[in-house]
Design brief:
This protein is an alpha+beta fold. The protein is about 40% helix and about 15% strand. The strands form 2 sheets. It has a 5-stranded antiparallel β-sheet with strand order 5-6-4-8-7.
Length: about 290
């Protein structure tokens, strides 16, 4: 006879999975969370890293772990992945469903207590509101840099962050306002001398692609930019694999210039990647190809 505990567990798993699949239909990237709002699973090779790793780690390159492993970077709207055998164990253990707001084109202002909620009602334009355990999520249309503790009890979750899914909320969603973007500015910008946009070396070669035409190179860079720009999930992995693809074709002939590399880095940073992650991904791709 089936035990009541087993029935409840199956219902919970089914509920989380159905929620995730429903969000995926709306192209909202999702991931399962452990109890305590902790993501799965950070294997030994990938601890504290996003896809791509670092050269001094045993695992350099895109994550091939059997479970979602990098918090927001593992979020996906691909139903095949969500239903996959690799993710099945995570859903069995999951306590909640999370999503990547930036991947869905959204920004969440996380108000952690009643004081923060009162401040938001007095200071921010109204938008869709989701009730949380201790406060509210205010959801705006648009993306920005994620920042914690912009003021007492207030976090911003957008690019390179995840938020717990607590339902669709109430009210109409409005465009991300300037006042919210301004919260991420800790201090006035300082005017500094211009720095080079790219700090990684271009491959050494003759300076001209001997086996391809300049038009072919330009088309390849444009396609690489487009691939990064159109990525909806697994941003780190997409950036790394795109860098790897470009270097595998043009990495030894010397036709890549700093301008080409800067275009790829700019596309990646527009999707929320940091300059350090771009440099790590480029270095790892070069290392893998022996460049």
């Amino acid at each position: 006879m089936t035990q009541p505990t087993t029935i409840r567990r199956v219902a919970r798993v089914t509920g989380h999975l159905n929620t995730a699949l429903g969000l995926a239909v709306l192209r909202v990237p999702v991931l399962p969370l452990r109890a305590g709002k902790v993501p799965f699973g950070n294997c030994p090779d990938c601890t504290d890293l996003a896809c791509g790793g670092r050269p001094n780690m045993r695992h350099a390159g895109p994550c091939t772990c059997p479970r979602p492993c990098h918090a927001w970077a593992a979020a996906t709207s691909d139903p095949t992945v969500i239903r996959s055998r690799e993710w099945a164990g995570a859903w069995r253990e999951a306590a909640a469903v999370a999503y990547h707001p930036g991947g869905a084109g959204l920004t969440v202002v996380d108000l952690d207590d009643t004081k923060a909620v009162t401040w938001a009602r007095q200071s921010l334009p109204p938008t869709r509101t989701v009730v949380t355990t201790r406060g509210e999520h205010w959801v705006y249309q648009g993306t920005m840099r994620s920042v914690n503790a912009v003021r007492d009890g207030v976090d911003i979750k957008s690019t390179m962050a995840y938020a717990r899914w607590l339902g669709p909320g109430t009210g109409s969603m409005t465009a991300l306002p300037t006042v919210v973007r301004a919260l991420a500015v800790k201090e006035p910008p300082t005017v500094r001398p211009a720095q080079p946009a790219v700090t990684v070396p271009a491959p050494v070669g003759g300076g001209e692609c001997r086996h391809r035409t300049p038009v072919y190179l330009e088309r390849g860079i444009a396609m690489a930019e487009q691939r990064i720009t159109e990525a909806r999930s697994a941003i780190h992995a997409t950036v790394y694999r795109t860098f790897l693809a470009v270097l595998s074709v043009h990495g030894r002939c010397g036709c890549l210039t700093d301008t080409h590399i800067a275009r790829l880095f700019t596309a990646a940073q527009a999707k929320g990647e940091s300059a350090r992650h771009c440099t790590d991904a480029w270095t790892n791709a070069r290392t893998r190809l022996g460049l």
